[in-house]
Amino acid sequence: MTDPGGRGTRVAGIVAASTNTTLPEGIAGVAHAGVHLMPVTVLNVQGLGQDNDVIAGVIWAGR
Q1: Is the confidence at residue 1, as pLDDT, over 70?
Q2: How open is the CA angle 41-46-49, to the nearest 5 degrees?
Q3: Distance between CA atoms of 52 and 27, rounded to whole angstroms?
Q4: What is the CA radius of gyration of the chain?
Q5: Taking the mean position of all CA atoms in its chain, how far away is CA 21?
Q6: How is 1-63 classified by DSSP, letter by letter?
Q7: How far is CA 14 from CA 17, 40, 51, in A?
Q8: Angle at 62 between CA 1 and CA 4, to 5 degrees
Q9: In this structure, are residues 2 and 17 in contact, taking their beta carbons and an 8 Å threshold?
Q10: Which of 8, 24, 26, 41 has the CA that lies 20 to 30 A from 47?
Q11: Cβ of 3: how many Cβ atoms within 10 Å?
C-alpha cells in the first residue's frame, strides 16, 4: 500500500476530494458517494510501463 513514485497518491486525492465544502478554494472530487479506491501498481517507480500492464491492473481490480 505504498506509492514510491507518488503519482497514484495525487490521483487518488483528486478522485476522492470532498465536494460542497465551505472553503472558497480547493477542488471537488469526481467520485460518487460510496466509491472505494483500490491501490493497484501497474507502472514502475519511474512511471513507465506497457498498456497491457495497465489493462491487466484494471481487470485484476474488477475481480
Answers
A1: no
A2: 55
A3: 31
A4: 14
A5: 21
A6: ---TTSHHHHHHHHHH--SS-S-SSS----PPTT--------S-TTS---HHHHHHHHHHHT-
A7: 5, 16, 23
A8: 25
A9: no
A10: 26
A11: 14
What cell was used for 50? 506497457
Identify the residue whose cell numbers are 466509491.
35
pLDDT at 35: 76
- Residues 16, 29 contacting (CB under 8 angstroms): yes
Work out the number of other CB atoms within 10 angstroms of the CB of residue 54. Answer: 13
pLDDT attached to residue 63: 86
Rounded Cα gap, residues 44 and 46, in angstroms? 5
Q: What is the pLDDT of residues 32-55, one digit of tens each?
A: 677 788 888 888 888 899 999 999
